[in-house]
């Protein structure tokens, strides 16, 4: 199994994402934003960081990169894509996921180990979790406040497309304390906190994050959609 | 040379913590006129010659697809002398 990790100008977490892919047992393949070549990978991770310095809007310029044209076409055909933090912002700007990530309600850059509750274990990236399972993974962002209109929120909630929610005090003002969502098909997932930083107790608060990466391998082996 | 301006604002229902922070700072500086402040973006686009209707249509498209995120923002396109 080959999982691509995209590097945009200003991406920070591509090395950790590649490491998480390899911990899960797959081959990590480095993909470049300026090329439309997906190098025959089986899935893609859009990692965190500050691509294009967050200029214009977080993820807005990256969403128009050549690699994204290929990812958008592939994702529409069921190809698995995980966007973490800035990667989630890119997916929202690319309209692969609904809504937008806006400035945290209290204006603070948040950097903490965050508890999340998993609410959907049917996606390609979350099938290794139990429904209601609480996980602790790092969160670090200034624009993680998930916003969408009422109709979109109703659609997400009624279709069970919220994959993870913040536990305890809503840290950033996200509607319905949403930390992550999926598309209708369950192949595209966006998450503000960082599972790739929680795969080894030496460097993270838990190993909970690894399950996102093992889930996608399981999906591909089992042919689960 | 002509100038086309695109102004982008967050929709009224979207929380604008930056605007609020500015609004909260004004009275601390002795400026008491503001009841609320919202912060937006302004793009000044230089073009060759007078803007044509087709050029303005292109700017409108760029604003819709790129300069603004219409999930959370609104925009206006204007020609400036």
Name the helix and strand elements of chain B from N-terminus to C-terminus, one letter apiece.
EHEHE
Largest sheet of chain B: 3 strands, antiparallel
Strand order of the largest sheet of chain A: 2-1-3-4-11-10-9-6-7
- CATH arch. level architecture of chain B: 2-Layer Sandwich
- How many strands appear in the DSSP assignment of chain A? 11
Secondary-structure element sequence of chain A? EHEEHEHEEEEHEEEH
Please name the fourth-level CATH homologous superfamily of chain B: Phosphoribosylformylglycinamidine synthase subunit PurS
Count of individual helical segments of chain B: 2
Give a short account of the largest sheet of chain A.
Answer: 9 strands, mixed
Specify the CATH class of chain B: Alpha Beta
The structure class of chain B reads alpha+beta
**CATH level-3 fold name of chain B:** Mth169, Chain: A
Count of DSSP H/I helices of chain A: 5
Through-space gap between termini of chain B: 9 Å
Which superfamily, in CATH terms, is the homologous superfamily of chain A? Class I glutamine amidotransferase (GATase) domain
Model regions low in confidence, pLDDT < 50 over at least 5 residues of chain A: none
Assign an overall shape of chain B: elongated
Q: What is the alpha-carbon Rg of chain B in Å?
A: 16 Å
Q: Which of globular, elongated, flat, extended, rod-shaped describes the shape of chain A?
A: globular
């Amino acid at each position: 199994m080959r999982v691509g990790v995209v590097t945009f100008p200003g991406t920070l977490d591509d090395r950790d994402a590649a490491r998480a892919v390899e911990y899960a047992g797959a081959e990590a393949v480095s993909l470049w934003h300026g090329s439309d070549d997906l190098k025959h990978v089986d899935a893609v991770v859009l990692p965190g960081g500050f691509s294009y310095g967050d200029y214009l809007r977080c993820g807005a310029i990256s969403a128009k990169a050549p690699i994204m044209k290929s990812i958008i076409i592939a994702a529409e055909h069921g190809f698995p894509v995980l966007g973490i933090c800035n990667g989630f912002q890119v997916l929202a700007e690319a309209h692969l996921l609904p809504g937008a990530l806006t400035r945290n309600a209290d204006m603070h850059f948040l950097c903490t180990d965050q508890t999340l509750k998993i609410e959907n274990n049917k996606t390609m990236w979350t099938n290794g979790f139990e429904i209601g399972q609480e996980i602790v993974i790092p969160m670090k962002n200034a624009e993680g406040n998930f916003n969408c209109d009422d109709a979109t929120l109703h659609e997400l909630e009624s279709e069970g497309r919220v994959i993870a929610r913040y536990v305890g005090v809503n840290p950033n003002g996200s509607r319905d304390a949403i930390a992550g969502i999926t598309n209708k098909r369950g192949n595209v997932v966006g998450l503000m906190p960082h599972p790739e930083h929680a795969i080894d107790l030496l460097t993270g608060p838990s190993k909970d994050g690894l399950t996102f990466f093992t889930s996608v391998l399981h999906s591909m082996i089992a042919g689960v959609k | 040379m002509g100038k086309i301006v695109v102004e982008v604002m967050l929709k009224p229902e979207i929380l604008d913590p930056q605007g609020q922070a500015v609004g909260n700072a004004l009275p601390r500086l002795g400026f008491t006129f503001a009841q609320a402040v919202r912060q937006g973006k302004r793009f000044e686009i230089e073009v060759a010659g007078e803007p044509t209707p087709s050029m303005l249509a292109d700017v409108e498209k760029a604003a819709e697809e790129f300069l603004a995120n219409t999930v959370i923002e609104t925009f206006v396109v204007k020609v400036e002398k």
